[in-house]
Amino acid sequence: MSTVTATPAALELIAEIVADHGPVLFHQSGGCCDGSSPMCYPQGDFRVGERDVQLGEIGGAPFYISASQAEAWAHTDLIIDVVPGRGGMFSLDNGREKRFLTRSEMCSI
Questions:
Q1: Which residues make Cβ contacts (< 8 Å) with residue 39, sequence separation at least 6?
Q2: What InterPro entries does its record include (predicted)?
């Protein structure tokens, strides 16, 4: 089973967003518009689907992924990082000139 962790830069950005918006959650996007960006939403503003799986927490925020993606990435650890750029259209990192990015590392089986 894959896990999710965050870099110090990601934890810093999460803290900044939580200070502005309150508790948040993440959902690993698999859509066409935002590619595979981890999307950050205020808790309560995003409906977690019955086929979504919680991989863990980063910076105190739950991190979800669709069951089909979780199955495909079962042997990959996800590392949430921050890079320069604009966040996803509806993600709370948008407009901060830095955005979350998912990196991966293969787990040993």
A1: 26, 27, 28, 29, 46, 88, 90, 91
A2: DUF779
Other CB atoms within 10 A of residue 84 CB: 7
CA–CA gap between residue 49 and residue 46 (Å, rounded): 9
Three-class secondary structure of residue 19 per DSSP: helix
pTM score, two decimals? 0.89
pLDDT digits (tens, 9 = 90+) for 1-42: 678 999 999 999 999 999 999 999 999 977 555 556 899 999
Q: Are 89 and 29 in contact (CB under 8 A)?
A: no
Q: Are strands 61-66 and 24-28 parallel, antiparallel or unpaired?
A: parallel
Q: What is the pLDDT of residue 35?
A: 58
- Return the closest-CA partner of residue 88 out of 77, 73, 101, 69: 101
